[in-house]
TrEMBL record:
Taxonomic classification: Eukaryota, Sar, Stramenopiles, Ochrophyta, Bolidophyceae
Keywords, ordered alphabetically: Gluconeogenesis, Glycolysis, Isomerase
EC number from the UniProt entry: 5.3.1.9
InterPro entries found in the cross-reference section: G6P_Isomerase, G6P_Isomerase_C, Phosphoglucose_isomerase_CS, SIS_dom_sf, SIS_PGI_1, SIS_PGI_2
UniProt biased composition (Gly residues): 1-10
Regions of compositional bias (Polar residues) in chain numbering: 11-26
Gene3D superfamilies, per database record: 1.10.1390.10, Glucose-6-phosphate isomerase like protein, domain 1 (3.40.50.10490)
Protein name, per record: Glucose-6-phosphate isomerase
């Protein structure tokens, strides 16, 4: 496949990707990396730059954060305001020297060359021989940077699909494209898992309460079906009118077992309501998949016009800005609002490639991530958005980062002897404060990303309150980082009159690092910025650690074993003796199969029922037909007995 760049433009709209205030930090673009060969490089931990940081970490271990954060000059230095975003990293356990040494490490690891290679479409995902071009998904049509993959201009490809999506989604929203029985398509069900689900759901949750989003989505519902658990199907279909439902199958490969079973289930659901006619599928099912899955999409019964392609050079966890996110979001919120997400992501792409280290938000966050993990040995990290609409951001970051940097070898195939790949988790504030913050304050130390907004999507002031509810939320955003950094000493507790016996239980050691990101408002544009910011943070860490952050071989083994288990389960349910690879798995399988068989002797397995909960179908304004339980599809009736 491999790609070259046509035109020779810079990765973003401004002339040089290597702008740096400190000329000694500027990396020559001639220092290009050859991704067609597996390099034989020493581990980064053997470099003098790494060793200098290890030495420096010993000094930092002696310093308490509360002594660092009282230094006015340092606090001034350790914040950035760019594109409306403020990053304050003064509560990280870093000094000017730390940042200089990290810059040296970044330079030694050719960070900027690697970034540029990514933007230009070099095959940096070399184990799969693929380019990594999610930045091209938000390129301007007339971008001077024209990566070419498989002979195709990537930016032209992207814009041709975006136009197809705009036309299709506008026509659906205007009622020109309808369902099989002529009804408007107002219920959208997006079927997908992993990267084909988490990012789009995160965007949906943000836009749901965004004022423009609220208006645009009036009369529409968007649901995500990801888990192969039949209960997820039940929940998804509950009270939906199939005649008004459009199913989007989002799967890059169009082979993922869970997605394809759910896709077949949803196809059957449509047929069971509207008749077993191929036109039901061609009018109610669309696909977002990679061009290499074209035949599979056709074989499913999906028409060409309803196929929105993306490309092998878009990784699943980096695919939100492709058709995977564009189709469901544009159907419900309109293409224009989705375009604003792309604008925000593009502005972050430009920021990332153009800005010098000390003004570069993703670069600073990535390098501090490396510092915390590999040198200060914090192997966890938490994302704490003080915005309920970001409730799915932690789950998205979890996949993005843990699938990207959860690796054990370098690009040269050498085992790493340093810590890489944090465990990422999170929850919106203030809810998180009432669940796991006890551990953050007194148990294990976990670096925190606090994310807050100057304005709420929709603020409230209750009569008699001096502050708005958003101000109230933000007081916590400001207070928690100080509590983590400063802690509380025994002497301070004594002064407050705390009894001596309680003091050990109420002492906070502090010295717990965090960073604070403050954005203007959770709009479509700013959510696009956040999305790209975290994608780039992950890339920075992988580049410095010398990993391939863009493959995911780690998910394959379990998938393969599940296929083997399926055969064993079929045999067990047919009354044959289960032969398993080890006694532990055999015991579990025997227990499962025997329990099922016993159950069935006394009680027939319960049949699933669509719309079981019997709520009013809001999208139909409470149509009585859907408030009742719809008929059970015939093929699913037999499902409980099929395995016998
Ligand atoms: O989009 P699909 O091909 O269905 O893949 C869905 C997901 O499953 C895979 O196992 C990977 O872990 C994810 O990176 C991917 O996003």
């Amino acid at each position: 496949m491999y790609s070259q760049v046509r035109g020779g433009g810079s990765p973003a709209s401004t002339p040089s990707p290597n702008v740096d205030t400190n000329p000694s930090r500027t990396i020559s673009l001639t220092n290009q990396i050859n991704y067609d060969e597996v390099p034989d490089l020493p581990l980064v931990s053997a470099t003098p730059e790494w060793k200098a940081l290890e030495e420096h970490a010993k000094e930092i271990q002696e310093t308490h954060l509360k002594d660092l954060i009282i230094n006015e000059e340092r606090c001034e230095e350790m914040h950035v305001v760019e594109d409306g975003i403020m990053l304050d990293y003064s509560r990280q356990r870093v000094t000017e020297k730390t940042l200089d040494l990290l810059a040296d490490l970044a330079e030694a690891q050719l960070l900027r060359s690697k970034m540029t290679s990514m933007y230009r479409g070099a095959p940096i995902n070399f184990t799969e021989k693929r380019a990594v071009l999610h930045t091209a998904l938000r390129s301007r049509k007339d971008s001077p940077l024209r990566p070419v993959v498989d002979g195709l201009d990537v930016v032209d490809e992207v814009h041709s699909v975006l136009e197809q999506i705009k036309t299709f989604t506008d026509r659906v929203r205007e009622g020109e494209i309808t369902g099989y029985t002529g009804k408007q398509l107002r219920n959208i069900v997006s079927v997908g898992i992993g990267g084909s689900y988490l990012g789009p759901e995160f965007l949906h949750e943000c836009l749901k309460t965004e004022p423009e989003g609220v208006n645009a989505a009036l009369g529409y519902t968007l649901r995500f079906l990801s888990n192969v658990d039949p209960v997820d199907v039940e929940r998804t279909c509950s009270e939906l009118d199939p005649e008004e439902t459009l199913i989007i199958i989002v799967s890059k490969t169009f082979t993922t077992a869970e997605t394809m079973l759910n896709a077949r289930t949803m196809r059957q659901w449509l047929w069971d309501f509207m008749g077993n006619d191929p036109e039901v599928v061609s009018k109610h099912v669309v696909a977002c998949a990679s061009t290499s899955a074209t035949d599979k999409v056709k074989n499913f019964g999906i028409s060409d016009d309803y196929f929105f392609r993306f490309w092998d050079w878009v990784g699943g966890r980096y695919s939100v800005c492709s058709a995977a996110g564009a189709v469901p979001i544009s159907l419900v919120y309109g293409f224009d609002l989705f375009s604003k997400v792309l604008d925000g992501a593009r502005s972050m792409d430009e920021h990332f490639i153009q800005k010098p280290l000390r003004s570069n938000i993703p670069m600073l966050m990535g390098l501090i991530g490396v510092w915390n993990m590999s040198f200060l040995k914090y192997n966890m990290r938490t994302t704490l958005p003080y915005a309920e609409a970001l409730l799915k951001l932690p789950a998205h970051i979890q996949q993005l980062d843990m699938e990207s940097n959860g690796k054990h070898v370098t690009r040269s195939g050498k085992e790493v002897d340093y810590l890489v790949g944090e465990v990422d988790f999170g929850e919106p504030g203030t809810n998180g404060q009432h669940s796991f913050f006890q551990l953050l304050h007194m148990g294990q130390a976990v670096p925190c990303d606090f994310i807050g907004f100057v304005k709420s999507q929709n603020d409230l002031v209750v009569d008699g309150e001096t502050l708005s509810s958003h101000d109230e939320l933000m007081t916590n955003f400001f207070a928690q980082p100080d509590a983590l950094a400063n802690g509380k000493t025994a002497d301070e507790l004594r002064e407050e009159g705390v009894p001596e016996w309680q003091i050990p239980h109420r002492t906070f050691h502090g010295n717990r690092p965090s960073m604070s990101l403050l954005l203007p408002k959770l709009t479509a544009f700013h959510v696009g910025q956040l999305l790209a910011l975290y994608e780039h943070r992950t890339a920075v860490q992988g580049f410095v650690w010398d990993l391939n952050s863009f493959d995911q071989w780690g998910v394959e083994l379990g998938k393969k074993l599940a296929v083997d288990i399926k055969e064993k389960l079929v045999e067990g349910r047919a009354g044959k003796t289960i032969v398993a690879d080890n006694p532990s798995t055999k015991r579990l399988l025997d227990y499962y199969v025997n329990s099922l068989n016993e159950d069935e002797e006394t009680e027939k397995r319960k049949e699933p029922e669509w719309g079981k909960n019997g709520h009013t179908n809001t999208s139909r304004g409470g149509d009585a037909r859907f408030a009742r339980q719809p008929p059970l599809p015939h093929n699913l009736r037999d499902r409980g007995t099929k395995l016998k």
